[in-house]
Structure formats: structure tokens, C-alpha cells
Batch of 2 targets.
Target 1
Amino acid sequence: MAIRWSSDFVVAEYRELKAKTISLDSSGNYLFIPGKTQLAIKNLNQPIEEISTFPKSSKQEPGAAAWNPHTANADLLALASGIQVELLTWKNNAELCTSKLLKSHTRVITSLNWHPLDPNLLATTSLDTFTFIWDIRESKKPAISLSSFAAATHVKWNKISRHLLATTHGGDVKIWDERKTSSPVQYVSAHLTSIHCLDWSMMKENNFCTASQDGTIKFFDLSYPRRTESVINTEVPVWRACYTPFGRGMLVVIIPTSRKIENSLLLWNLANNSIPLHTFVGHSEIVLDFQWRYFQQDGSDYQLITWSKDQTLRIWEVDKYLQELCGPGNNDLDIDCVDFASETTKETSLTVPDSIKKRFDSIVIEKEPSQRITDDDSDTINEDINLKISSQDILENSQPVDLNSLVKSSTVTAVAPVNLQQEFSANIIIPNVKIVKTDIIRRMCCATAKCNNQVISLLINFPPSYPRNKGPIFRFAQGTSVSNAVRFKILEALRDTADFKVKNNQACLEACLRTLIMTMQQLTSNESEKINLFTDDKLTTLGSNQEAAFLPARTCGAKFCYIGKLVCFAKPMSQLQLSDKNICGLVSLSNRQTEALQRLYLRKNGALPPRTKDMIRRGLLKQMQNTRHNKRTVLIYDVSSLFFLNKELALKYTLSGPDITDICRHNAQVAASVGRKDLQQIWNLVLTSVKSVGQACNGSIDWDCHPLAKQMLQSIIFFYISQSDIQTAASLCCIFRQYLCKSSIQSFKPSKTTSIISKTPSGSPYHNILPNEPSNETAWSYPMRKHIRCNSWSDLYEDIRSSNSIEHAEVVETSELSSISNTYLKDEDNEWLFDRIKQAYADILYRWQLLSVRASVLKCVKASTSEKHKGLEFKAECKQCKSSNFENMCPTCKIPSLYCVICRLSVKGLAYVCLYCGHGGHLAHMKKWYETESCCPVGCKCQCSMSVELISN
Amino acid sequence: MVSILNTIETGHEDIIHDAEMDYYGLRLATCSSDQSVKIYNLKNGTQLIADLKGHYGPVWQIAWAHPKYGNLLASCSYDRKVIIWKENNEWQKFYEYTNHDSSVNSVAWAPHEFGLILACGSLDGTISVITYTPETNSWESKRIIGAHSSGCNSVSWCPATPSLASLNTSVNVNRSAQTKRLASGGCDNLIKIWKEEGDQWIEETKIEVHSDWVRDVAWAPSVGLTKNLIASCSQDHRVVVSSSDDFVNWKSTVLNTFDDVVWSVSWSLTANILAVSGADNKVSLWKVDTEGQWVCISDVIKGQGEISN
């Protein structure tokens, strides 16, 4: 049991401040509290109510803040606000003024840290991926710039080595040497989720710890960057973890995820990773920041100053007893617990007094080796042995021993007699898993697992300290067939199992192999199971070492969809308010990894304190009662009124008919019926012009006879195109398709047959591209093309028309040719444009699912851009002119193309033809024939029913 | 007037990052940080018809394919995956594309005329163009390596039917065989235009107008347009509309400088109205007035469901 008592503390509430961080000056007398709207400085020697406040110079909400820790610059404060750092001077202990601005970052500054040894150096990190080191004597630009690819969230100078500093990027740590700025000297892939805090050891140059969202505090030694020296598992996200200035303790702030865990401020002894030493009880909400205050007059008295989200400041007395519980300080002993643990494996180098040995024996007798020792027990042992050893310390001056480490390792040897050799020699029988090789000297073994045609070959290395809180290292050997994603998940599962076991100092090989095969079965068999298994608590597929820049996620958007619909989504208003406080309120309702990601994304506005889950719930509940905009809703707006598209019009418009005047009259009525007076006028105008054209040309409609009608019609259409009124433009295009181009069909009719025959030497209009017609001696060429064979009537018409236009051109004087050609080009472009408009309109009709209207529009499209038919085609060849066509009748000779082989009559409707022998006829006749027969009705010995297979093969 | 047609309580457990209706306007797909993609039927009220789980990270964007290829939905996520979902009686994973090394930020289907082709823009700086071959039922991918040095945020396809202007410059080019083109925006503050030549995607040009990350690009539908238009928005608070006749020379005009970071731009079907939304949680609609100036025609204040003119 952890010892819990209430220390004496001072409480003061400054509700109006809304601060997120605090900073203590070098003397320990002044505390800087940068509030949301104003900055405050508290003299800790004065009564608790007194606080001096100062107006804030920038609009930005303050981010990180730090008082210069050196007496030389004791009056200097650094405050991150938005993308710049303000250097504030605390003048005469009464006045706070801005002295300098450090501007170079382009994104919000996430963290800053004064150099612990050089009073002029300040390191800042920002989401812009850069880490700058400023020399405040030269504040125009940073003295050193460290560039990484990922947004940096935390920076900390090494407390011993003056050149080293660490930055965190998501779950990764980069160690830099300020003398080598091009790249980090070390790269530690520490966590899978974001790191909230990093702290360097005060005693050992190379040691640091990281606290992460994943609920662990990990300890690293730079000499072995790939290895985690030890882990404190808190089960809940860790917000802060800092070495205590005394002993070997660590002060930890956790982010409670449920109401059950109420206290967020814990003190640990690093020698005992299983349970906190002390819990500071008092704050009702999470502690955002803390500072240690050192009483020099007394020598060893520390005060802990904490600032909580409930906007209260508390000052805790950390008395000598508590400090001693954290173990001896750096002056006395200097053996790292991990080093020690590895040394003890030699066993011989350590002499343990008999009294303690006896004690161990008794423990061994008392407890079965397999029995899991509870935390309570280990604590009592801890204390017991502590007492015994204290005397021994004096005796063994030649070999300094970290008492607590000794205690720890003692308990370990006491309860875990299982060594590696025993573990290897144990007969492990698991189906589908085979231990291929064991090597006790190199402390490794190799196992293979087979499942669902997949093979995994796993190398397991056992570190010397195994199984004392140190799990084995897993690697995949050659011959592993599973994908990287699966590997990742398997590793994850293995580590979990191993960690669980070694936390209780138990051997884990067998359990790990069982996990291996189980995980493998689940992963390789069923996709859906995969989801259930791994999405719950672990961020499985995200690599920790990826150089990802953190983009603030899009939380609001609008998309035009369908026809005149605007789909909008946004953060609900309640969330907005939360985000004003830089907290993503709804994050913690989802699972943990999303939470972590979300935090990162939302951190763009500055550092943010986490919010406890129950607080959010409470807050949300309240908002739910107050507002109705708390759910994640998508709104669909009907914005069709902004567009000129009307489904009713589309349905009612007539687009083709024998009499154009009737069409226009009808459409004008339709427009009036839906209240579009403007369109009614246009239709009437068109109607009038059609009538006038008719009058000018003696009843027949020939637009060439009229000087203005065609131009007017074109300009009307262009107007509607420019207004994006596709519906009106396309409707007009469809109705007047024949008259919008150069000449009309009526004027052409008399010369039809002659022109076709004389001007198309290939004899067939059904060639993809007609050869350019050198109809006269000029270089004029009219790019006449048909794009794709098509059976629509307009196609035929187009051919006739183009032939006619050539004829027309011949008549034109040579001097006029150039200008004519221009208009021709333009005409073709117009025609092309009109076709696009028709197609766009057809697409809209398709969306409306007005398929018959769409078909009638597409009928008016000349050059069909629909996809080319792939595979076999059936063509008929005219008996007379030998030209092939797709029609049921040759277009030139008017002779039916296909006669039924059964009834001998021409086929006009559905036909079936054997693709092999080419015989066929009416679908109904052929179907009936093949019901009983398999060969061709003509008697050509073709096995028609087989032919389809033959051809497809 | 503009009115709310439908309010869909998505039931997502986290922030929604994208929502899109299908071609016929009958269905709505949404994606969220809660790692799921949801599909709703909008006919006769709103029914959830599928809750697609398969991503292990926030899902950033979704895109419906043209219905002629069936009911297909593409989604991209922070987990570096692109998943194409297909409805065969029920919604299932059709294809999973895992070649990206970092978060995939954007997916966009090519115009249906080109076939079933999907472009994906990723934070790893590459753009993938993956093409489906129905004959072999297989997907083939091409990658544009180093498209945007520090990450690609958005991709958008050039419409299959060219604008009139691009024809005038090359009258003799076969109009039906259009070159495939893509626009992309990235963390290098650039908009790049890519075109397919042979089996390679090459950079045709780049537009340097933004002073910060480009968050979204949208190529306007070509209907009735005489020029090619691309709208882009950026962290620099600006929305820029760039126009070109020939895909090479782009003329850019700043539509507006907003108060906050702008996250998305979307063209209407007829390319005359642009919807802009940003970090300030607001949506505004923009249209060119008779003098050729962009004017805001309405503000949709989200969460309140009000529209002010």
C-alpha cells in the first residue's frame, strides 16, 4: 500500500486566471502564472491572497512559460504566445514589461526551455517542425536551427552535458548536439503514442525518461538507445513525469480516465516501479504544472508548488521523511538501478550479509515460487530489508550499493528462482509451435509457428536481467511469411504478454509462444476478428518512427453533392467552446489512441492541458441539456434555388417534335407553370423568331434566309451557358440542333443524293474519319470527322450536312475563303460546345433518374463520346453496294441487311446471328430452333450452339 | 431559399472529417476520427445501412465512384491505408491499398470516362494513381514519388471533357482522347498540375500562390466554362482561383482572405458556385458577379443551421 496522508499545504484559488502553466524564478520567491487574459506574478513570501496582475500584450493565448533559472538573468521570463516568444523583464520586483520578441517560428510554439548552464540560451520547439536555440543577446534570429520533419512538442536541455538537448515528436525522441545541427545524434523510438513529457536525469548524463499517452513512463540510457531501461506502468495516460531534485524519486501527473482514479499527483521511488510511494491528495482536478521550491536556509526542505485545472495553487511541504523514502540522493550513491540489476546477474560479485540471506530464505519458504507476490507484500519486504541493510551500508564502504536497488533485486531473487536454463529445458508443448534452437550462452532461442499456410520464425533474446521486470526482445527471422502489418501486431501482443509476466518476475517464454500462435491464428484467419482484437486499446498500425508532420485535422467542411445539395459538417458548437480553451473535449470519449492523435492535432493553438474524462462527460451532459447541437451531425442543405436546374421543367419540357413552334409554345407554358416567367419570355421570344423565319422563307424554316435569327439564338444559348443554366441552354440546343449549324436540312435536300455519291469516294459514310476533301485548289481543309460509329439519325444527318457544306464552300469566292473558314471552325467549336452542354445536361438527368428524357437529349448529341464497344461486333454487308453497316437497312441502297434463315423474311427487330457461321434471323425463330437443335438451320454443318464457346475461347 | 433538407445524427464517436452524397443523392457517406466510415440511406428519413470498420486511424476523406462501376466508396486514413468498399448485397472491403508510408490525406476518383481510377495523396509526399482492370479483376498502381516534398494534402482530377479554351490552342487534338490530368496541393505551399504521358505521370507545371500549406484543391467541372479553373485554399487563410487556357500558364486571383485557416473548397456541379469552409467552423458560398468579381452570396453558420445573406 502506498502511504497516503495529507501534507500541510496552502491553497489559493485564482479562478479568473485560466492559466495552464506556472514558472518559478531562480530565487524561489516569485511564481509566474500566465493567464488567458492577464499575466500574474505571485510573491510566495506574501500572504496567499496577494497577487499582482499585468495586462497581456498579445492577443494570443499564452503557451509555455519559463523563468530564467540563472541568477544572472533572474529577472527574465520567456513566454510563448502563438508563434512568437515574448521575453519579459520583471523589473524591481514590481513591474513586468516586454523586452524582446523572438520571432521565427511559423507555427504555434509548443515548448521552451532555458539552458540550465548558460543563462543566455533558450530552446524553443514548434509545430513548424523546427527547434530553435536562441541567444537572447542577439534576438533577431535564432542562433541555431534544428530541422526535423515532424512537429516538435517538447524540448529539454540535458542537465549535465551542456551541448545535448532532447526534442519529442509524437512518440519519438530526438537527441541533438548543438554543435552538430544537421541531424540528431540519437533517435529513440520511445512510444507508440504521443509523449507528453520528457525529463533528463539530474544524476546521469545519458539518462532520461519519457511520459506518454500510452500509460507508461519509460527510462532510457543514451548508450543503449534501442533499449528501454525500465518502465513504470500507470495504466492511464501520463501527463508529466519529472525527476525529483532529491533522492531517486519521480513526480508523476497522470490523466485519470475514470472517476475511480481521483488523484493525479503521484510520487514514485524509482527503485520500485510497481507502486507509487506517495499520493498528493487535494486537487479536485488534474494538475497542469508543478514546480519545486528549494529552501536554502534550511538546506534540504522542498516545497512542491502545483497548479491545477481547477485554477488553484497549492503549496505542499515535502518533509524529510518523504524525501528519504525516495532513496538516497545523488551525493551518496551513484549506481543506477538498472546497471545494478545487470551486475547482480553475476551473483558472485555481491556479498550479501547472512542476516539478509536468512531473510531471503525465509521468504522463499514462506512463498511458493509461482505465487504472485502482491504489492503489499513487496512493500513490507521493502521496509523490512531497508531496516536491516541500513547498518550494513556502513560496513561496506568499499562497495557502494544502492540500497533500494539491492532490496529490489533481493526480492526478485527471492520470488523468481526460475532461470533461463530451466525455462529452456522445460518441455513446452504447444500445437503448431516448435522451439528450433536454444542457446543458453547467448541467452536466445528460436521458435517457429505454422498456421493457415503462414510461417513465423521468431528469435527471442533474453536480456541478462530477465525475467526481473525486463522482458525478452522479439525479432522475426528469415522465413517469416506474414505481412508487416501482421508482424507488427504480433510483436505488440508478444510484448504485452511478456511485460505482464515479467512485471511479476515470472518466466514468459511459454506464455509468449502461446500468444504467438493464438494471435497468428486470429490474424491470418479472419479480417473481422482482427478488428475486435486490436482496435480496443492499442494503436496497432501506426509506426512510431514515421516522420509525420501533424496536420490539424479538418473538422468542418462543405461539399456540393448531387444536384443543388450542400453537405456540411462541423464541430458542434459545444465543442467549439471547448476548443476555445484549447481542449478537444470530445476526444476523451473515444478510445485512447484517437485521443492521442486528436490532442496532437488540436495542439496547433498551443500547449493544452488534458481534460479528465469524467469532467468532459459532466460538461457534455450539461451542454446536452442546454443545447441541441451537441451531436455529430451532418446537415444537408437544399441550395438548389441557387442553381437554374429544375426537375419539373426537365420532366415537362418537350425537346423534339414535328413542329418547332408547338414545342416552343409548350415549353413556354411549362416555364410559366413552374413560375419561371423569365424562361417563359425566352421561349416566346424564340417562338416569335421561328415564326418570323418561317414567314421570311415562305413557310419552311430556313434560318439562312433570316439575317438575325440564328445569331440571336446562339447568343441566347451562350448567355445561358455563361449563367451556368445548363438546362435552358441544353434544351434550346436540342430543339434547334439542326439550325444552329451552318446550313439546314431543308435547303440541302434537293442535292442530297448527288452530293453524297460524288463527294465521298470511299462510298460509305461509315468510316471513322472522312478524308479531307481537297474540293478546290486552296489549302483550306475542313477537319471533317465522325468520331465513333453510331446509329443515331443525327449521325447520318451530320454526314449529309458536312458534304453539303463542302458543296457550299465551292460556291464561295476564293477571296472570301479565309473568313469563311474561320466561321466554320467556330461553328464546329460551337457545335462541340453545344454537345458538351447536352451531355452535361444528360448527366444531370441521369442523376435525377429521368432516363427517357436523358435518352432524348443524348439523341441530339452528334459526336458520341461514349465508350467504344469492346469485343465482337456484328455488321451487315449490303448485297448491292457491299458496304457494311449496323442498320437493318443499307442507308444508301435501302435494301434490308438481314434476312431470316428460317422464315426468309427481312429482319427489322431483334435478331440473332451465329457468330461463327454468320447465319441467323429473327430472335424468336432462332431461339425456337436452338431449343431442339444444336447445328445451324441452313445446314452448313456449323455447331452453332457450341460456337459461342469456341469464339470466346 | 436555402433550407436544411436533412439533419443526420451520425452517431460517430469522434469528429467527422468528410461527408459526401452519392451520384444519385440517395446515400450519404461520412468518415470520422473514430476510425469508421458510415453510410446512410437518405430515402424516407435516414437509415444507417453500413458501418464500415477496417481503418486503424482517423479516416480523413471518402469518395464515391461513378455508379456505372457499381456502388464503390474509397476511404483514406491516418493508418496509411486506402480502402475501397463495394456493395454486393452488403458492404465489404473490395480492395486495400497499403503502399503509402504515411497518413493518406486525400482520395479522388478520376472522371468515369477514363475508367475506374483512384488518385491518393499522402503525407509521405507521394501521389498514387491506382487503376482497376476489370478483365483481370486487379488493381495496378503508379506512384508519383516526391510529388510534394513534405506531404500532399489534396488531389483533384481535371474533368474528362476539356474546356473550350484548351481546344482552341490545339484544334487538331483528338477531342475524345483527353489527357488525364491531376491537380495536387501540399505542404510545400505549391499546387502542382500532373499529366499522364505514356505510362508516366509528369509534372506539367506548378502554381506558386500560397505562402503556407495548401489544404485543398478543387478542379472545376468544365461544363460551360471557357477556361480551366482550379480553386485552392491554404493555411495562409486565402482562397485562390487559378485559371488557364493551356494547363501551363495559370493566372491566379485571390478570392478572399479569411479570418482563419481555410480547410476545404468545393465546386458546384455547374461550376458557378464555390463553397469554402475553414477552421472558423463557417461555410460561405461564392459566386462571380456580373463584373467578374467573386462575391460571397451566403454564410452558413454551422451548428446553428442559419444562413445569412
Target 2
Amino acid sequence: MAGVPGFVHSDFAPVVVAVAERCLRRGYGTQQVPPEVRTGIVLVSASGDLASARHVRATVEAGGRVGPLFFFQSVPNSVAGHIAARWGLRGPVVCLSPTGDPYTDGVAEADLLRDDGDADEVLLILIEQAPDGPTEAVAVLLGGGARP
Amino acid sequence: MVEARVAQLTGVYAVSALGRGADAQLAGVLAGVPAFGPVRRFDTAARRVTVAATVPEVGTLPDELAAAIDEACRAAGLDREGRTGCALLLAVHGGPATGPAPAVLAGQLAARCGLSGHTRVYTSACVSASTAVADAAAQITRGDVERVVVAAGYLVEPDQFALFDAGRALAVDGAVRPFSAGRRGLLLGDGVAAVVLESSSGRRRGGADPVATVAGWGRAGDAFHPCQPEPGGSGLARAVGGALRRAGLTPQAVGYVNANATGTAQSDAAEAAALRRALGGHATEVPVSSTKSVHGHALEASGLLELVVTALALRHGELPVNAGWRGPDEACPLNVITTAPRRTTATHALTLNAAFGGANTALLVGVG
């Protein structure tokens, strides 16, 4: 899997970008989303970027200094912003830690953003990073603005 | 004719380095004395910056959140029966932490505080709490629910402190100077807050008079960069536009802006550009300050702490000072409140937040 410029150490961002790009390509090819379509991002993850957080915890615990790039990837918003910049997604960016079924939580938030009028469509991303297993993610485009 | 449902703030509570409770927050932001001091909670010897705005003798985050929810419900006149079916929207840092996982924490808080409606946990960095408030207001006005508790908390801890220090985001001169010449960055601060939002049509017998209404809200993205704001402020301007549109107000109706301004060079300039874009000529007239200059940046909780102080200040009729001012910056041509609190008869104020990922929110508060 290709890395993502500016993101290090963890496969959280590369996996998010991989599933998001596959999903957006189905809808928009290689083009950006047209400016009149406001595509929101809802990223749902209980684990967050576990690998990076653990690295930071261990480094701080040992009295060390973390690398500056870890600051920039310290919240899930960052990779959402990377995707938004690449694809021209101008809707809200919302990250959730699921309290129930992650897909149900994510769809409920996406529906709210669309119904409330801040988003025409929503890129929903579910990602979980297991401590000792593979990172798994899925992306789906909900709604559908003015597709080309 | 059926009256439109309005989301009212009927109970508010907050804890920060300014003190405990709503009155302490209002007094603190009007006094305008920054609450930053040496961090004693953990070792900062390896850090470039060693100060933050911390609460002395603070409890654990779950205990502080539970207490804040109880106090906000009490202020709203919400007894145990009234809390039944009430939703809890929680804004906290996501991922692994020393305490319970966010979803577990939400469940525990709901059970402790008797809130039996749905729960949702927002981990959208510095727009977490403000997004939760926007969602709560949307759910109330569209008739999904009668009342929602929004709670948010961040207590300064070693990992985020180390990350902000590593990213050279912290002000090495130990002061937060929003929109000012010579600003050097942000400083972190504790913040735990809870608010009760209720439908205007669902006023309870014995319920408190509302503190304020959440008259409008907007959420929008920059589509620009993983962690830098769009210099023209386009996303934040669209969020402000959304808030005005929902409230049915013109820019001239806005009598105060509690800005996101963190004291960071690029971000403050982008926010000034956003205000010019959204408010037109009124952007240079409306009084502006950033209360982060006194209570620090409470990250995931910042939007709720700042909503509380904005609503209280507007209701009180005095606008908070923007501490740390050294002089104007031509990149931020705004009417910044620099020396003393300013008296106002305004009825509406904006409180703005922005985060990594180009996420922006605007909340429009109304009184009177």
C-alpha cells in the first residue's frame, strides 16, 4: 500500500486514503468533486490511530521527544483533511467514536448532516486498527450530489 | 400557525483554570487575566514550553464530566425524571487513553447521570464540542428530540502536551496573543463543560429560564490541507454563512464574535479573512475577542467552554477582553477588544471554532 505524504509510522492514514480513493473514483473518476457539491466526511473509529498513539505514549513515558509529524497526525481529522484537499470535499468533517454499531452511528450522522443542509453527500469511512491484527476499513458515499 | 422549534440553552456549567462554575467563567473572561502558569501535573523538563492553564486539584476526567453534567442539569431544573430519555453528546479525545475508551465513558456518564437517550461521541479535534452542539440544535429543531445534554472535556495531559510542543504550536513566550502583532502560538488549558439544550416548545413546569438560544449553526470544510487553514478563510466563512442563514439574520445583527483565534500566525489571519468574507464591512466593526487568551485551548472541549462564556457574556451585557495584545497586525484588521470589557446591548454573538482537517464550525447565540 502506498504511503501518504506527511504521515508516518502507522498504516491508519494509508488505509483510510486507500478506501476513500477507491470509493470516490467510482463516483468521480479522477476528477475533483464539483465545487457546487458539498461532500462531508464522517470518519468512525473506536481505535483511532492506535499505532501512532502507542508510539507517542511510549516515547513520552520514556521521557523522550516525539517527532513533529506525530503532531500533525495526532487526530483523525488530519487524514480527512488530506482526502478533502485532494478531492475538493467542502462539507463538514466529523469524526466519531462509535457507541453502537459503527455503520449505524456513521449513517445517522451522515443523514443528519444531509438533512440539516450542510452536506449534499457524505463520504463515510469506518476504520479499526487492531493491536496485533490487520487494519480494516470501508468507505461508502452516501447521498449523491450532482454526479458527473 | 405552528411556532418554529428553537434550541434553548437552559443549563450551563463549566470548569477551567478560571474557576469552577458558570459565574467563575464569566468573572474570569471579564477580568481578562490569563490563567497560565507552570505545569505541575507532569514533568515538562524535556519540552520547549512548560506552561498551561490548569485547574488546581482537578478530579479525573470522568468524575469532572459527571459533575459538570449534574450541575448543568441542576441549573436547568432537570431532575432525575426529567433526564429520562435525554440524549448525551460527548466530545473528548479519541483513541487510547489512560481512562475508559470514549464509548465506554459515554455509557458510564449516561448511567451515572440518568440520561437514557442515545449517546454519540465526537472526536473531531477542536471542533468536536461545537459540532456536537450544532447536531443537538439540529435534532431539536427538526423535532427528533426534546432535550439533549452536550458535555465535553479535556484536561491537560503529557501526550497532547508533548505533541503540541513537538509541532512548535505552543507559544514560547508563555502568552496567547490572538490577532496581535508578535503572536507566537497557543497554550493549552483545562476545560470541562456541559450544557442542556431543550426545545422551546417543550418547556417544562419548573424549568429554568433559558440562558440563551442557539439561534444558528454552520459546519463546513476547507478542502485545503491536512492541518493548515485555507488562508482565505473560505470554509469558516461558509460555516458563518450557514449560521446566519439558519437564524434568518444579516451580518449586522452580530454584536460580538468569540473567535477561534488561537494566537497562531496563519490561523488568526485566515480567521480574519473568513470574517471579512462572511460579514463584509461589518467585520471591521463588530467587537471581537478570543477567550482562549485567558483560559487556553481546551482542544475537544474548546467549543463548549467558549459557547458557555459567549452566552454568559452576551446575557450579562459585557464582552470579554482579548488578553495578550501587543498591537495591531495588518493581516487581522478587526475591532479587537484589547484593554477592558466592552458594554453591549447586542442580542446575538458568534462563537467560532476550527480544527485540523480544515473543519470549521460557527454557533450563533441569541439572548433577549
